[in-house]
User: Fold this.
Amino acid sequence: MRVRQAPCVPRWTRRGQLSQVVRQRKQEGASSMRNRAVWLATVLVIGLVVSGPSQAQQITNLLLNPGFETGAMSPWTTYGAVTTQVVQDCVGATVPEGPIEGKYCLYLRVAAPGANFWDMGLQPRGIVFQQGKKYTLSAFMKCKTGTLQVNMKPELATSPWTGYGERVVTITEKWTEYYVTTPVFASTVAPAGVTFHIGFAAAEFWVDDAKWYEGDYVPTVVKSKLGAQSPLPDSKAVDVPRDPVLSWKPGPFANTHNVYLGTSFEDVNTAKAGTLVSPGQTGTTYKPTALLEYGKTYYWRVDEVNAPPSSAVHRGDIWSFTVEPYAYAITGVTATASSQDKTTTTPANTVNNSGLTADQHSTVSDAMWLSSMTGTQPTWIRYAFDKVYKLSELWVWNHNSEFEPVLGYGFKDVTIETSTDGTTWTRLKDTQFAQAPAQGGYAHNTVVKLDGVMARYVRLTANSNWSIVGLKQYGLAE
Assistant:
């Protein structure tokens, strides 16, 4: 059983359970390394002015969380006196830039140089060196000010720490991709590892979009960041309130902004008439003039317009978000009943999602509730919430055993009552629940409108069932 609420109120609708809708808004070491025998390989530096990379030639990145887009550092680790933080902006950088890729990058601070440059390090996990293969390690790096040396080292991850392509690179104040390619391995090396040795000097710097892949280096092709970036709400966000304030980070040369908004990707993509909701605005926020529709997905983009005399327009990416649903599921519901057939067919099964997968119910009888054949009549089941809610609708998954067409345990004619105190009951309506199909993958097939009634308790009384053999047992799935 699932209950839904009206806007900003509970809704009885949660995978077969009484559920409340509460409006919720959402808008924003390792051991010291030693320098040992080294196989030299070429390390190239590719300078990039603007970023947001994509791969020109397809590679398979073997690193986990290579751009820190989880918002956390794991499974990367550091050792030595290093401070780290996953950030969304390069605060204090001489050259102000955001992450080169995605929303996040890794900030590192080395307070003082080590006695050896390998006394501090940054390491990803999951590295392999397989016989007959060569590998490339690459990463975008930039320092807060000046320059900084970093040693990039694919290596045997135990003494004598043999390096395969180790080379010191000098990073600058601008995002730049650095890489090293190993030789072809004559035999499998284990344990294998990759270390960025960062103990050369005290410094603050950032790392982003790291890669470890088979084969020779493939340059990362970057797309322009002259357009709007960092939308809020995040692209593909859900449960966005009906009255959102849209915001973005402007392009570096933007003078004004053209904001497009609509419910069709194609319309926004082609700038169809009616989607340009705010032309030539100077601010970097936009609030729709009317409330948005519940549960609807909206698409939007911001085109950045340069100052005269060029007035060049930099078309923005298309972002999307989905507005909060009309109702949410009530949680923490307690179910009691006039009786139950056995210990496994408890009334709690109608509110605990048992038997449900992606809102579709199975035919497993022990995942449902069934009353006792000798129980008192009429049979009823009662749902108690943690407080009074305004209820919108009730979703019903009826009893769905394989023999339901004959046994017909499912509720048929039903009286629905509500109460605010559990003592005084008000008859809301009489209705009929549809029979279940006796098949797996059963989606709810009864929706009862509750008309916004205020209640803490709901009681369903079975006046009849779907049995064709006269059984006096009654049940529900969810």
